[in-house]
Recover the amino acids of this structure.
């Protein structure tokens, strides 16, 4: 047991140093329900409602665990990855116990249950469920399903408590947890138990109110049919049902291939929608189905094989695209099916020393594969670059997603590195590539609009986001972004109307409420802005806007500012729009004292004193201070010279201009200032 646990920790050790990835951010660090510990509200919303918009997922157990972890570790990804590894270990132990139970029924020495457990622990296809925090739902659901089977067949009284708890863990972690209703009868069909009909009836009866409450809650939260309306789904209605059903063959081949040869791992499946019987993916899928049929015929008399195959098939059935699905295929969907796969193939290694040696070699290869795979999971950019490299253009779903998310990762890195133009250009290139390859994909406009916003190109941002709003009607995230752009144009009335429309759609949308408070402030309605501010909860997505508002109201109320914050520069812009120049000067003065080496701040303060407050005395003092602190910045010389001119002090003005010309003879204004000085000297003579 100790050796098994150590093997898992060593194999997955890289995960502990990885950050958040893709859905992790939406579900944890950007999720107001997690950050603000709103455990009750978690059970009232679907998985992505507070960060992306409506989804078809209801998994409160997963998000509740994230919220609990956030209480302890905040946004330290180390602890979330550690939890994933620990949960995987617990699941492996359940698989070990489950294997012992089945081996006991088949008169196989229970000591050999170690083989399936070790195989499951180190199977590379499971690595996505461990490396990716957001895929934790598969691990929790599998724990619930296996724990549910174990507790259902138990005759101990405590099982009447454990079984419904395991059932709840399964269905509240992932929807396919309902497969437990099929997997329990499947187990009882193949492996006789002493459990009585009465016990089966009572345990089944316990679930009725649980299921009733679950579906009432779910149907009130989840929008039916959402998945079929998404342009990002693998299958689109225009593909037709025939193409969808024919794609079942390559999807089955994908999962079978990942089960037996889990080495060419990829976040995306690389599968294309069926487009012809001579396409290589379809042919390989057809071969895999034929091989499966042959295997079933050959193993039809082996009880363990029949149970394992049925378990494997049942668990994969929801993701084979027999019914329309969002993904073409994902490695983490194999987590539950691999339980049966590993139990059957694990017991084959029990025969002699040679097979045990082969088992050891396979486990070492698996462990090394997982460890190496960890390098790709280090950063979002690395995993999406890996996916983009491995995903061909004919896989519309995966090809688009890998590039769009790689672009998003580049933008994120660019923002954290002072808007590095190289990263922003890479992102723009990827969005453009997607737009050119798949013109019907409408998400590119959102990405290009975000880039335009970063660059301050508001006309382009307005075009892109307006088109995105038309493409995604009713999307309150996009509408709120559109309102922000209008406010940047000074179209506050238009922005206000859009935000009020958003708040009618989603009254608790705090990001829109924060933006509305800013608009009220800019309009000069300070009291209304303050009330709106007090009525808005701080969330990860509106944190910066709320900080700006907090700074603004602190300045207005004469409160002492404590330390510099980047949001103060945005507050300066808003004070400028509002015409509160005295408060603007106060804020700029504070910022200048906190970051004294920034010449731009001191220059802005000098201009504020001179032009906006019409206070020449403070203006002179500020410009002189700028020349002393930043002697190589020509703006202070020009500003001081011009200020002297407005005060009719031509002598001092010319003196400053001469210093300027001596230091900056090639400056853009040097010619005009030189002509002025020469003209003054001629007139003086």
């Amino acid at each position: 047991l100790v050796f098994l646990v150590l093997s898992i920790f060593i194999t997955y050790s890289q995960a502990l140093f990885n950050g958040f990835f893709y859905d992790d951010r939406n579900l944890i660090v950007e999720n107001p329900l997690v950050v603000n510990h709103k455990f009750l509200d978690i059970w009232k919303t679907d998985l992505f409602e507070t960060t992306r918009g409506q989804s078809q997922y209801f998994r409160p157990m997963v998000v509740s665990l994230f919220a609990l972890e956030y209480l302890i570790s905040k946004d330290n990804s180390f602890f979330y990855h550690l939890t994933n590894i620990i949960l995987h270990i617990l699941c492996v132990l359940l698989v070990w116990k489950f294997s012992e139970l089945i081996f006991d029924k088949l008169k196989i020495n229970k000591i050999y249950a170690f083989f399936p457990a070790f195989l499951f622990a180190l199977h590379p296809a499971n690595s996505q469920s461990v490396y990716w925090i957001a895929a934790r739902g598969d691990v929790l659901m599998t724990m619930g399903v296996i724990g549910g089977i174990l507790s259902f067949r138990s005759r101990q009284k405590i099982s009447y408590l454990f079984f419904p708890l395991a059932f709840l863990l399964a269905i509240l972690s992932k929807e396919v947890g309902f497969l437990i209703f099929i997997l329990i009868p499947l187990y009882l069909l193949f492996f006789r138990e002493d459990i009585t009909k009465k016990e089966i009836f009572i345990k089944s009866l316990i679930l009725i109110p649980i299921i009733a409450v679950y579906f009432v809650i779910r149907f009130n939260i989840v929008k039916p049919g959402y998945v079929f309306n998404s342009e990002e789904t693998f299958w689109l209605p225009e593909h037709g049902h025939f193409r969808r059903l024919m794609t079942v063959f390559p999807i089955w081949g994908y999962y079978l291939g990942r089960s037996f040869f889990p080495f060419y791992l990829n976040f995306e499946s690389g599968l294309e929608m069926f487009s012809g019987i001579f396409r290589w993916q379809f042919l390989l899928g057809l071969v895999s189905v034929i091989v499966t049929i042959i295997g079933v015929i050959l193993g039809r008399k082996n009880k363990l094989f029949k149970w394992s195959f049925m378990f494997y098939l049942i668990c994969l059935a929801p993701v084979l695209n027999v019914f329309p699905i969002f993904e073409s295929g994902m490695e983490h969907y194999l987590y539950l099916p691999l339980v049966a796969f590993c139990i059957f193939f694990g017991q084959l290694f029990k025969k002699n020393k040679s097979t045990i040696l082969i088992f050891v070699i396979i486990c070492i290869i698996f462990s090394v594969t997982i460890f190496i795979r960890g390098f790709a999971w280090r950063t979002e950019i690395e995993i999406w670059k890996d996916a983009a490299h491995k995903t061909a253009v004919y896989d519309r779903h995966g090809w688009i997603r890998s590039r769009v998310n790689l672009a998003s990762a580049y933008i994120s890195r660019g923002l954290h590195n002072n808007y590095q133009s190289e990263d922003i250009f890479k992102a723009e290139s990827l969005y453009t590539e997607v737009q050119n390859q798949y013109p019907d994909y409408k998400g590119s406009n959102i990405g290009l609009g975000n880039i335009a916003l970063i660059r301050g190109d508001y006309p382009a941002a307005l075009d892109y986001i307006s088109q995105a709003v038309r493409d995604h009607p009713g999307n309150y995230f996009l509408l709120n972004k559109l309102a922000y752009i209008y406010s940047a144009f000074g179209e506050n009335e238009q922005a206000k109307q859009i935000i009020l429309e958003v708040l009618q759609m989603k009254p608790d949308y705090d990001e829109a409420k924060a933006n509305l408070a800013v608009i009220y402030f800019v309009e000069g309605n300070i009291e209304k802005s303050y009330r709106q501010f007090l009525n808005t909860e701080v969330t990860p997505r509106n944190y910066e806007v709320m900080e700006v508002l907090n700074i603004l109201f602190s300045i207005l109320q004469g409160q002492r500012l404590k330390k510099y914050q980047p949001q103060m520069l945005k507050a300066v812009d808003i004070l400028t729009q509002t015409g509160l120049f005295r408060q603007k000067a106060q804020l700029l003065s504070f910022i200048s004292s906190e970051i004294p080496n920034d010449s731009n701040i001191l220059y802005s303060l000098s201009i504020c004193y001179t032009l906006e407050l019409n206070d020449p005395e403070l203006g002179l003092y500020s410009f002189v201070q700028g020349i002393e602190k930043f002697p190589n910045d020509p703006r202070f010389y020009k500003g001081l010279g011009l200020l002297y001119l407005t005060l009719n002090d031509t002598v001092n003005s010319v003196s400053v201009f001469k210093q300027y010309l001596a230091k900056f003879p090639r400056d853009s204004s040097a010619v005009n200032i030189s002509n002025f000085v020469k003209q003054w000297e001629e007139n003086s003579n």
